[in-house]
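can u do me a favor
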C-alpha cells in the first residue's frame, strides 16, 4: 500500500521537531535561506550582486550573499556546491565544504570557479551554493608514544584497491 502525505503535513511534522534558533541579518532583497523539501539537508544561498558577474573558464571569484549569521558554539555552517549548477554550467565551489565557524560574524561569501570551457554568467538572485548546518565535536588531544594497531595500518591513498 502506498501512502501519500501532503507537503503541508510533512512541513507540520518538521516543525514539530525541535529546531535550533540561529540569529541572521539579511542585507539582500532575497528571502532567508530555507529547506526546499522536508528531506533537504541544505538551504540554498543566493548571489547578492549589483550587476551580473561574468565568470571566464577557470576563473574564481568571491560572491557575496548579503547574509550574516550568529551560530551557537556547538554548530558550524558548511558551504557546498549545488549539483545542478555544477552539471549544467560547470560552476562549483572551491574550498569545499567551506566552513563558517561559530565565532565568524562577517558576510557569508561563496568562492565559485567556472570549470567549463565557456564564459558563464552569475545573476543577482541566482542560487549559487547550499549551506548545511552541522554539530561540531570538540576534542582534547592525548599525546601517546604509539597508536592501537588496525588491519589497515598505514595503508592509504588507494591502499584498499578498487574492489
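np, heres the sequence
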Amino acid at each position: 500500500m502506498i501512502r501519500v502525505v501532503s507537503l503541508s503535513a510533512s512541513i507540520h511534522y518538521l516543525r514539530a521537531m525541535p529546531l535550533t534558533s540561529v540569529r541572521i541579518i539579511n542585507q539582500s532583497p532575497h528571502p532567508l535561506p530555507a529547506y526546499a523539501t522536508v528531506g533537504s539537508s541544505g538551504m540554498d544561498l543566493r548571489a547578492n550582486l549589483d550587476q551580473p558577474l561574468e565568470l571566464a573558464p577557470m576563473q574564481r571569484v568571491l560572491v557575496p550573499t548579503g547574509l550574516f549569521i550568529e551560530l551557537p558554539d556547538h554548530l558550524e555552517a558548511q558551504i557546498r556546491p549545488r549539483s545542478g549548477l555544477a552539471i549544467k554550467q560547470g560552476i562549483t565551489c572551491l574550498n569545499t565544504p567551506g566552513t563558517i565557524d561559530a565565532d565568524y560574524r562577517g558576510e557569508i561569501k561563496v568562492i565559485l570557479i567556472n570549470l567549463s570551457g565557456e564564459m558563464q554568467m552569475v545573476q543577482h538572485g541566482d542560487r549559487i551554493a547550499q549551506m548545511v548546518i552541522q554539530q561540531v565535536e570538540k576534542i582534547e588531544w592525548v599525546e601517546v608514544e604509539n597508536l592501537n594497531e588496525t588491519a589497515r595500518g598505514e595503508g592509504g591513498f588507494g591502499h584498499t584497491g578498487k574492489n
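The CA atoms of residues 73 and 102 lie 5 Å apart. hope that helps!!
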